[in-house]
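Make up an example, fold above all:
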Amino acid sequence: MVQEMPRRIDVMGEEWDHLIVLDGCRYDFFSEACWSHFEGELERVVSLGSNTVEWRDNSFQGRYEDVVYVSANPYINSRMAVRGFDARDHFHEVVDVWDWGWDEELGTVHPGAVNRAAEKAVEEHPGKRLIVHYLQPHCPYIGHQPTGTGYPRQEPAVRVVLNGVVGLQERPLVRQRLLDLLEALSYAPWVKQSGLLKEGRVWRVRELLGLPPSSPMDALRRERGVGGLREAYSGNLELVLRFAAELVGALDGVVVITSDHGELLGEEGRFSHGRGRSERLVLEVPWFRVAR
């Protein structure tokens, strides 16, 4: 029997009054965890992007005056245009939870801060639809932080967010040059197409060279292995589902839970996600209509 391919989901072309976005949420993990928190109808769908920026650019191309975007993700904010996207041009208002709600110790925004912002937005914008964008289950994993250090600090004020980018930490010159070379090669089109430097391979090379981990996910993989990484991801998902369930009680109308993209957690030695990826586990996300 040939399995029917999931449909591609254009979130603004679907019916909903409030849309909850779980950042980096895989369909398979969600399909196992959601029933402990919700009743409803679950569909496996294909996202319009394999990272937040690609999903954002493909999903929000118009002006949506009836939508307030509650954003824990700094890639969608009202302070500045990010990679050519100015959220102020697309939504009635953007609530910058990523800014005032950023927890420096956790290196992310706790879902409790998102709930407080969303509940306030409901009161201040009656009649508007909400998009509520949590950062979980995306790393860093709350309650499962690695003990090691050295990766770039998760800090939106200096645009070092989510997966992390090369920071300005002082390192021995030779190691810094090797690190610069790895980072430059990973962005070269021919290298991307060849798959020579996928995340898992880059991470192993960095480890062999004695370079620090590139992100909290990389650090956790080094300390606890793939099994520990998946356990941490699952824990982050359970956390955000618990808070999303609390929020749903404050929302009227049709509530849908989805994700911007999925995640690789060591399958075939691959990790994380990125723009232009084709792996099923990165593209397939949930579309869950909550039963009222």
Observations:
- The chain has two domains: 11-144+225-290, 170-211.
- The radius of gyration is 19 Å.
- Residues 53 and 75 are 7 Å apart (CA to CA).
- The mean pLDDT is 84.
